[in-house]
Amino acid sequence: MSKTAVITGGGSGVGRAVALKLAAQGWRAAILGRHAETLQETIRLAGDDGARLTFYVCDIGDPAAVAAVGAQILAAWGEVEVLVNAAGTNAPRRSLAELASADYHALIAANLHGAYYCTQAFLPAMRRRGNGTIINIVSDAGKQASPKAGPAYVMSKFGLAGLTQSINAEERAHGIRACALFPGDIDTPLLNKRPQVPDAAARARMLRPEDVADCVLFCLGQPPHVIVEELLVRPR
């Protein structure tokens, strides 16, 4: 194992939690996000393990930007063993009655297109090395639509689940596996974009980003011949 990983959404939430846990276990990780300040904060929180983290400012909804960053990472490391697509967003005005076209396109770009662009950036190198793991942080909204999530978010997450299935259908013969994690409510900054922001009591009942990061490590810890194709996890 080369123990190299690329993590999108590394400046907060699940992406940050995955980066911190992987760094603590000796992995080198490239964290991607749109804001240098939050990515640098992830590295600071890693403490001494922050030396294993490298950040790249990248809008993953921009295919040219993803291709450029992917090329930089592969030029520096030669190979990437793991890709974790953890970036995601939503909009406060999210119902069918009020969803703006610009918000719809931004949601699909960040939640679905970005994961596809990142997959395509690293999949050829995984094929050449004969193994690799891609973990997509979906949502239980990718299992069942709800007004809470909104249609654009739901559509993006159903699509991300389909991308995961397609990777396994086409790439397992090349030693590559993909896992879709379907978490329920997680206490992350994304909650601040809900029409009604949950209070502290509601957040206390939710999953923590670290809980989902532990699920990522569980999937990575399976022997190479094992694929955890789907993992649904909700707060009790």
Computed over alpha carbons, the radius of gyration is 17 Å
The largest β sheet comes out as:
7 strands, parallel
Q: Which regions are unreliable across 5 or more consecutive residues at pLDDT < 50?
A: none
CATH fold-level label: Rossmann fold
Q: Tell me the helix content.
A: 40-55%
**What do we call the CATH homologous superfamily?**
NAD(P)-binding Rossmann-like Domain
* Sheet/helix structural class: alpha/beta
CATH architecture: 3-Layer(aba) Sandwich
CATH top-level class:
Alpha Beta
How many helix segments? Answer: 7
**Would you list the SSEs in sequence order as H and E?**
EHEHEHEHEHEHHE
In short:
The protein is of the alpha/beta class and 236 residues long. It is built from 7 helices and 7 strands, in the order E-H-E-H-E-H-E-H-E-H-E-H-H-E.
Please characterize this protein's 3D structure:
By secondary structure, the protein is an alpha/beta fold. It has a single domain, classed as 3-Layer(aba) Sandwich (Rossmann fold). The chain has seven helices and seven strands. The protein has a seven-stranded parallel sheet with strand order 3-2-1-4-5-6-7, sandwiched between helices. Helix 1 (about 15-25) links the parallel strand 1 (about 5-10) and strand 2 (about 30-35). Helix 3 (about 65-75) runs parallel beside helix 4 (about 100-130). The longest helix is centred in the middle third of the chain and has 29 residues, at about 100-130. The chain is globular and about 45 Å long. The model has no long low-confidence stretch (mean pLDDT about 95).
